[in-house]
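Final report, Chapter 2: Outcomes

The project's central promise was a pipeline that accepts a single protein chain and returns its three-dimensional structure in a standardized token representation, suitable for archiving and comparison. That pipeline is now operational. To close this chapter, we reproduce one record exactly as it appears in the project archive, with the input sequence first and the structure output second.
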Amino acid sequence: MVKLTRIYTRGGDKGDTSLGRGERVAKHDLRVEAYGTVDEVNSVIGLARAAVDRTVKNDVPRAHVDDMLKRIQNDLFDLGADLCTIEAKESSEALRIVPSQTERLECEIDAMNAELEPLTSFVLPGGSEASAWLHLARTVARRAERRMTALAAGQPINPEAIRYINRLSDHLFVLARRLNDNGAADVLWAPGKGR
């Protein structure tokens, strides 16, 4: 269990930080960029959770949506812990993203998508406030994925972590549509309309 008695340590005042097992790296290290971007996704999901009760008007059970997003936020802390702990052959106690977490996202995507009409156009971010926040979270998740795949090109990382973040952006997209009155309030792209 984590116990924080001091918020600042002064340990990063010279531009470096500690990873999960105490290794020191620059704050701009690609690994730090990856888990820092995951933290950004988590923060935007927090804003979406705050907006759900105020803005969702359709038949979507708000408590179910909040439960899903809360689990995802916990998963994202797991993902951050996974990314900040460099793989060590002699150790297996590190917290890692596991297939069941990705599979749960897939099951939720399939259940939500069954309630939606198929898309006939790309969707512009917007609609309800909660949907707009989820679209922002989706784009930050894609950025986190880019950071993670760049990291994976040069260092070993848990492959399930990449699968999870890939699936998460799909989940956030489908949930944004679900919260837009099951897609009826989606803002659709009109190619060339601004010409």
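Archive annotation: Residues 62 and 82 are 30 Å apart (CA to CA).
This record, like all others produced under the grant, will remain available to the consortium after the project formally closes.
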